[in-house]
Amino acid sequence: MNLEELHDLATQAQAKAKSQEHHVHICMAASCQSSGAADLQKGFTEKVKQSGAGDRVCVKGVGCMGLCCAGPLVRVESTTAGGESHLYQHVKKDDVTELYASIGKKPVERLECPTDIPFFERQQRIVLENSGRIDPEQIEDYIGAGGYRSLVRALTEMSPQDVLREVSDSGLRGRGGGGYPSGLKWATVARSPHPTKYVICNADEGDPGAFMDRAVLESDPHRVLEGMTLAAYAVGAEYGYVYIRAEYPLAVERLKTAIRQATRRGLLGRQICDTPFSFEIEIRLGAGAFVCGEETALIASIEGQRGQPSPRPPYPADEGLWDCPTLINNVETLANIPAIVREGGQWFRSIGTEKSTGTKVFALAGRITNTGLIEVPMGISLREIIEEIGGGIPDGRTFKAVQTGGPSGGCLPEEHLDMPVDYDTLRTAGSIMGSGGMIVMDESSSMVDVARYFMEFCMSESCGKCIPCRAGTHQMHGILAKIARGDATAADLQLLEELCEVVRDTSLCGLGQTAPNPVQSTLRYFRHEYEEKLKADPFAAAKPATT
Amino acid sequence: MPRYPTPANAPPKVRVVTLRINGQDVSAREDETILSVAVDHGIRIPSLCYLEGLTAWGACRLCVVEVAGIPKLLPACSTVVTEGMVVETNSDKLKRYRRMILELLFAERNHVCSVCVSNGHCELQNLAAECGMDHVRVPYRNAPYEVDSSHDFFRVDHNRCVLCTRCVRVCDEIEGAHTWDVMGRGVECQVITDLHTPWGESESCTSCGKCVQVCPTGALVKKGTAAGEMEKLGDFLPYLTQMRGKQ
Predict the structure, then answer these.
(1) Is A305 within the bounds of a domain?
(2) Are A352 and A359 contacting, i.e. CB atoms less than 8 angstroms apart?
(3) Which residue, A83, A178, A249, A512, has most beta carbons within 10 Å?
(4) Could you report the predicted ipTM of this complex, rounded to two decimals?
């Protein structure tokens, strides 16, 4: 396939879409599906069949529209001049008849979801630009939306170095949590003279409350494949893996479909676009161990070994999968690549802040009105995200803390809400950007319980290789449970702090090194909550007074 | 396939680097690790999972050292030296950390020295004495573990295991049987023979006893030993690797 053929395909897809007056888009991401979106699609399809309006009305399942709390979501659009677009929320099976009858007429006000709210207006979509618009199971839809243009153009008009330069220029940093500059990582792999190299897409999203990668893969899987193929072209790899958790069956299914379609179109596989460049992608399912999101453990898991991290250096970029140079990037990082190659690195750099460029996808969860998936430019304040986009705290309660970065992150209180969201500022405040989970808590949450919950998570997800993480998280969880029960003394709190320090500084991998973060950040901002739960030391009187 | 260059498996290189450990200027081959350089120069760095002749594992974290200019602590067993490196192996912070790691180990399983067959010949016990760990501040887990005496000559007592995986590595890398491996996660980890069959019924075990000799504690022992009687003879390993290297 060359650029003209791709262009023809895109024009065909667009013309086909234009030929139908009305479009009914039903969100078919996991969250809407779980509240009955599949029935809606069936209902609408039957209605179209009954009324014989197949040439006028197009019903299709699309990816995530973002506002998961209002699901299932249905968008009814008209392509005619001055065409209207209406978003409907909480649509039930019984509403289908009424909605179908309203197409092209007066909208059903009862179900309408306002789209002029900050939730939609304040977002800037790059990774999610096609999400909720295209059918993730149709490659033609993706091509119609401009997809695979970057790849075909790169393969036919750009050298691998050009692609690499655009990524370096963009200032893109790893979206999986670490925030390592992607350009540097790519350059390290590209520089290696090793004949065999690999590209791995890390889709082992494990943070509680995070669903960014799942949504991207369910809504726009071709985008990730295109990003991976561009990465492979830039670094000189011929083989790639998507390491994805088996708990994401829908994402796995769509990814498989996407790989099959792309291969059939000659956009993946041997001699892509009739150039000498070949790239094949294989899916590897993870059995759900959190630690397998760590690069070296992920590689061990792909190799068929026990999913345990190993000391770095050597870094995967030098010696990774089967001791070959390996590029590992997160789903969201790779999903940014087609846009960067299309618009140029400088364009990407103009978005966000100087050191954290571009946008970031966040999964809003917890005590917040608009639960769902958002994409915002870096540097936006936490207050804008929570109060404007997120719609604030429901039920008239007050905000207490926001947890970013999952079990590796920290809890930030009210006074940090005006802080810009970027990698470095969050780190200074004692939390991390992480992969993008954002859990909002109101005054009813006990911070000791929050810390205990995350420690329990780390304890049960520790692989058991290094002692500080294996035994340390267990002991910290014990002390936190004791504090929560009200049985702990000041000495226990002191021991907890010391354990935090040891586990953070001596653990082998990121899991252990960041496991104390939820405890340390809550101790920093909510120490009184811990102290209120302490009981007096029964032996205090018997101890000699210290001077 | 060894991942990390150790003197045993790396191709010989001639370049020499100089570095400073605890204020002492030392020279080393550029493919050596901090730990092996320190050992060569009589500088003691506590370690538990490391054993000369096996691939470095980097799991016990007792050998972590401070390297000037690097914010993180690095494991001496798997960090290769570089020119001009300034290493500190025994700062107050490191001493405090090592002590805590040992406390965590002692509290994790049942390490009661007085009734242990390895009493007096135990690396864990020696490390505790060396690092001044005289009491344990964290609560003991007191989790019950089984003792497997099904093998004709040897016994595995999981209560004494520190999960250093020396047995796993020696069985895989030296004996080539790969009888041992680890199952479970976190504190529930356990070394197992074959697919968790009793040791005596293991089909892959050659009964060579290497695992017993490299085990630092009283977890893998010879049958018929009473308290304090189990002495390990780990010297065969450096000798064996050296001899094999010469072939």
Answers:
(1) yes
(2) yes
(3) A512
(4) 0.90
